Amino acid sequence: MEPLGQHGRSVDDVIGELEDKRHNDVRWEDGRTFGMVYDGGPEVREVAERAASIYLHENALNTKAFPSLGSIQSEVVGWTAGLLNGPDTASGFLTSGGTESILCAVKAARERARIERGITEPEMIVAASGHAAFHKGAHLFGLKLHKAPVNDDWTADVDAMADLVTENTVLIVGSAPQYPQGVIDDIARIAALAADADANCHVDGCMGGFVLPFAERLGRDVRPWDFRVDGVTSISADIHKLGYAPKGVSVILHRTKELRRYQTFIFDDWLGGFYASPNLQGTRSGLPMAAAWAVMQHLGIDGYLKLTASTLENADRMRDGIAAIDGIRVLGDGRFHLVAMSNEPNDPDPIDMFALGDALERVGWFHDRQTPPDSLHSTVSNSNAGVIDQYLEALRSCVDEIRGATTDDRSTNYATLE
């Protein structure tokens, strides 16, 4: 590793090298990446970039110093609570992303159970389809995690969850939708189970929070999942996914301000004075908060309906195209924007899905790998508008190309590792 240079470089030189570094990055601008970056179009990018430039240096560590950021946070949280049918008492905070929102929900559940029920050995229940961030939260905050299986349709097995409930259960999790196959868990039954256990029920709406409310308005059949379901105590929703804001900004919502207070860390025995932190960060960049505010204001309900309609049309066409190709299938009955495809298990010579993924990547189409079963995952969005027919043509060609071929690389990295 080279040391930092003794002398500085010109602005043009530095920016030119940064542009060069992007040469091998995925081409999300071309719609060839199913996930990671979600593009709402030129005007959405413009409003986000202009807001970002205004708030490039602002710090939400102390909103008394930057009251505009306090206002931005309150308004974005309020708008999101409205979309998710939160009661007037609903309260929350902005976070850096879905993982931080989930971690805050785990921490809040632990603290509530400790204070209200005297629980010192907390436990939580998550389906095998639940996001890995819940396992991270259990590890960081000292909870015992029980993993329940999923049903044949990939939804959480609520009967199995019920068998895992103990007197130490503090949190039961449902997903709307879950990430791997894009199906919505039975949130009503999960929330009732949590209420009977006097435990929190968190709904991971990181993928669906800015899709399902608009899909419902567009006439899609959406399983009950938000604050209209009794027993749901908190929901996470990522604005930087299908809310089309830049990375990284998410919302963690609690049904009441009293439930929200368990998320906050307070310390008043420091020479620096009273310290309170509403989430895991201390310093918080104002940039993503302002960009999210600007994007939501620019789009409004009508803009989100238009983007969601585009997204759902893209995903429907993609599912139909996959189903028409011999040897591969869509996993589960996902009806929204997440699509996972695998091989036909009864084929005498099943297609190697990871070899298929490699072939698609060679011609410019990037997917995440998943297992079990071996599958390729796509988060479809407005970014993919206008390219689905090109994608399906490439998919058909690649399936024909790799029939009978295999790859030794069985990795499924969803990580930053060196």
Mean pLDDT: 94
Order of helices and strands: HHHEHEHEHEHEHEEHEEHEEHEEH
The total of beta strands comes to 13
| Helix residue percentage | 25-40%
Question: What is the H level of CATH, i.e. the homologous superfamily of the largest domain?
Answer: Type I PLP-dependent aspartate aminotransferase-like (Major domain)
The name CATH uses for the topology of the largest domain is: Aspartate Aminotransferase, domain 2
| CATH C-level label of the largest domain | Alpha Beta
- Per CATH, which architecture of the largest domain? 3-Layer(aba) Sandwich
How large is the share of residues in beta strands? 5-15%
- Structure annotation, total helices: 12
Keywords:
12 helices, Aspartate Aminotransferase, domain 1, 418 residues, 4-stranded antiparallel beta sheet, globular, Aspartate Aminotransferase, domain 2, 7-stranded mixed beta sheet, alpha/beta, 2 domains
Provide an overview of this structure.
The protein has two domains: 48-298, 3-Layer(aba) Sandwich (Aspartate Aminotransferase, domain 2), CATH 3.40.640; 300-402, Aspartate Aminotransferase, domain 1 (Alpha-Beta Complex). It has helices at 11-21, 42-54, 67-83, 98-117, 132-141, 158-164, 187-196, 212-217, 257-260, 286-323, 353-362, 388-402, and strands at residues 91-95, 123-127, 144-148, 169-175, 200-204, 234-238, 250-254, 265-267, 275-277, 328-330, 338-343, 368-370, 375-379. The chain has 418 residues and is of the alpha/beta class. The protein has twelve helices and 13 strands. The strands form three sheets. The protein has a seven-stranded mixed sheet with strand order 1-7-6-5-4-2-3, sandwiched between helices. Strands 10-11-13-12 form a four-stranded antiparallel sheet.
